[in-house]
Amino acid sequence: MASFGTACRHHHSVRGQICGMFSGKTHCPSLRRGERALESCYGFVSPSGRVRRARAGERRRRALSEFLCTLRSVTTQRLKQDQSPMPDQRPGLFIAFEGGDGAGKSTQAARLAESLESLGFSVLRTREPGGTPIGEKLRSLVLDHGHGTIDPRTEALMFAASRAAHASQVIRPALAQGAVVITDRYIDSSVAYQGAGRDLGTVDVRRLNEWATEGLEPDLTVLLDVHPGDGRDRRTAGDAAEDRLESEPDDFHARIRAAFLELAQARPETYLVLPAKDAVEDLAAQILRRVQDLLGSRT
Q1: 299: confidence class by pLDDT, cuts 50, 70, 90
Q2: Exposure string for 68-86, b = 16+ CB within 10 A, e = fewer
């Protein structure tokens, strides 16, 4: 058996011969296979092998660089998504018309919609209770006579149910598409009519409706303030019939009026309060001007 020293000398002798054999570039496939075998057996790396290793290392560095670039790009996009507007920071504009019965809300809502459409805006005009198939059925049940006694809590829940469908199925999708949504009545009507008028408590009624709408609030509430007597005169002009709520006594409508004004005083920056007795054209011009200011601030 050869001694350890003899084996070492043999190893270095073979390594020297190999270095001489592969001192240049290797193009022959069989020689390349031989190189790899010698590298594995003796730890020898030929010049061409070193070149291949260097190239492989460069490829790994390029791949790592590309991966890091992709990772940065994905991370940046994710951060932008995380910082995207929340549901209440909508691209559209949400306007609610409020006020006592006979204030002229429907007239002004229609005029505003017509003016904005003529200016090129996408407009959705809707109403409460209603706006959806189930909402319209609830509207008939809660406003029309002949459905028996409706106690205050049942009334409040019916309005909230209609509003939940309205907000989810109609208002939110339209706002997401950038439309100007104009609704004839919204949460403030329940706060005023059921919270104050039916004495259920404005705080409790607001909480119920905020839950029903998932916190969807108007960008602007146009409150047309009408005296109860004036409202009744308008409603009954031409022998028009009053619905179940309209036919309530004037003290009921007085509580509603006071509640609306309190809501506006609490958040004046999001309300436009106008006297309903003013000329229709003057009211329309003031409302349009305020809405245009809001639209201009968003561009």
Answers
A1: low
A2: eeeeeeeeeeeeeeeeeee
